[in-house]
Amino acid sequence: MTIAAATLFAVNGAVSKIALDASDIGTLRWTELRSTGGFVGLAIGLAIVAPRRLRIGTRRELGRLAFYGIVGFMLVQWLYFVAIDRLPIGIGLLFEFTAPVLIALWARFAWHEPVRRRVWPALGLVVAGLALVAQIWDGLTLDGVGVVAGLLAAVALAIYYLMGERLVERRDPISVVCFGLGFASLGWAALLPWWSFPTEALRVSVELPHGLFTVSVGSLALWGVVFGTIVPFSLSIGALRHLPVTTVGIVATFEPVAAAVVAWVWLGEALVAVQIVGGVVVLLGIVLAETSR
Predict the structure, then answer these.
(1) Long-range contacts of 239-245 (CB under 8 A, 24+ apart)
(2) Fewer beta carbons below 10 Å: N end or C end of the chain?
């Protein structure tokens, strides 16, 4: 489930890049559209199929869901966009995906949960592999604000998994994602009112790479809502019912590798040899983490 979610997120990155390059929606508006569309789709589905799942028992639970939505669904994406606006995308991903290190440290020292020793070399392999993929030695002068944003994105991503693990103990994963996207949508609506949304941009036509066919930006947005938001978020949260959060967090680092492969195959962004080696190192870390259960 986690690998499927990471793959869908990776594909959605390429889809979003095509849409954003073809229109003037902007990254923040695109994220707002994904969050709100995902919430509306899940809320309607649950209201028809299982309305009881939309009930919230206590004010404390409401507060936790609101915090989870703002931090785990809204801030993760926003901080990531700030980071890649000031840093190369690979470097931004590297900082954000240090989250598994934070997850393991929190599980070990805050929750006092047993974490087998092989998790630590697995984390080392993941971070080293991502460093190779990002080529951090390639004469980069890192922007301070970008670095801080990337590290804060890692904190927010760690909270996404840690809180998600606790929330799915009492609620089903689909309703957790629904409420998370709902509160994220409220946050975006407060910052970027919907009445000023550039709806005309959704009607722009764009030709997919390799001359496959021509679609509208609105069609790509629909893909982003369903297969880039609803399905992968539901899978990633649902996986927390089957795997420890430490393992899920590490396996999720497959996303940068999958994104690089998708960009290579579909967008023609070729990988150099050292990046391929880095991807293999990340995969080795994921396998080692899986066997540490």
Answers:
(1) 239/1, 239/2, 239/5, 240/161, 240/164, 240/165, 240/168, 240/173, 241/168, 241/173, 242/1, 243/2, 243/293, 244/107, 244/113, 244/293, 245/103, 245/107, 245/161, 245/162, 245/164, 245/165
(2) C
Entry field: residues in the chain = 293
Element (H, E) at 163: helix 144-167
Low-confidence spans in the chain with pLDDT less than 50: none
Domain regions of the chain by residue span: 2-290
Q: Tens digits of per-residue pLDDT, 186-234?
A: 999 999 999 998 889 999 998 888 777 889 999 999 999 999 999 998 8
